[in-house]
Design a protein that fits this description.
single chain; 246 residues; alpha+beta; 12-stranded antiparallel β-sheet; 5 helices; 12 strands
Length: 246
């Protein structure tokens, strides 16, 4: 099923009782016009949930293409607390054993990194936007976390709707990380000049939590450039400042 904002206006006035009687129409049939509001509802609920969430934990799965090369998948234990405190510990893949701490206004706004070494861990204080900190990553730590991901896609979807440049397809339900998810594939103009992050994105939306728990993004040559997943996502972690002490 492929939808754009230029759907037949007739269906905008289709009786809403149908959604109560046959909710599967929302996903499984061509009810043009309805799906725009459905996706917008998902975005709104995800944004509201992030707004209400003070802290969370997750197993973060990350794979990125850097300078044309698709890097090995990394697995990271992630803690996050508002306004912006983050702790990441690499538990598999390149960098296993690495720990990173960052908090706005702390440590002169530098990242504290503990890098494993043959003689024990080495501690570094790095500019989050500097070459060393950014090595092997598409984004700085200041853009890490679920909130930034939701914001980027919220902005892009709404821009795409506004300019009639977004087409998306609601797919099937599938289990991911032990969660029931709904797949959505979005396509933007196949040119970086339009200002979108990617040409194509495949999202797994958690049916219960109404939030994306995996996003795969493809560039204008349709190559995978980023794959981010949030396994065992706990949005009620009740973390304290002590959880972010190095």
């Amino acid at each position: 099923m492929i939808f754009s904002r230029e759907s037949n206006a007739f269906f905008l006035f289709f009786p809403f009782i149908v959604l109560l009687v046959i909710p599967s129409l929302f996903v499984c049939t061509h009810v043009h016009g309805k799906e725009f509001f459905y996706m917008e509802d998902w975005l709104r609920q995800a944004e509201e949930l992030i707004e209400r969430t003070d802290s969370y934990t997750a197993i973060f799965h990350k794979q990125e293409r850097i300078k044309g090369w698709l890097k090995t998948r990394e697995t990271v234990f992630l803690r996050f607390k508002k306004p912006f405190k983050i702790h990441m510990k690499w538990i598999d893949g390149p960098g296993k054993g690495r720990e990173v701490f960052y908090a706005e206004g702390w440590n002169k706004n530098r990242i504290l990194v503990r890098e494993p070494g043959p003689l024990g861990p080495v501690t570094l204080n790095l500019n989050p936007h500097g070459a060393i900190a950014m090595q092997g990553s598409r984004h700085s730590i200041t853009e890490a976390g679920l909130g930034h991901l939701v914001k980027v896609f919220g902005d892009h979807f709404r821009k795409g709707w506004m300019y009639g440049e977004l087409v998306y397809e609601i797919g099937r339900e599938e289990m991911l990380y032990g969660r029931r998810t709904l797949t959505v594939e979005a396509r933007f103009p196949k040119s970086p000049q339009n200002g979108y992050y990617c040409y194509r994105a495949i999202m797994n939306l958690d049916v219960e939590k109404k939030i994306p728990i995996r996003v795969q993004m493809f560039d204008w040559e349709d190559r995978l450039v980023a794959d981010y997943g949030f396994e065992k996502l706990n949005l009620n972690a009740r973390l304290t400042d002590d959880d972010f002490e190095p």
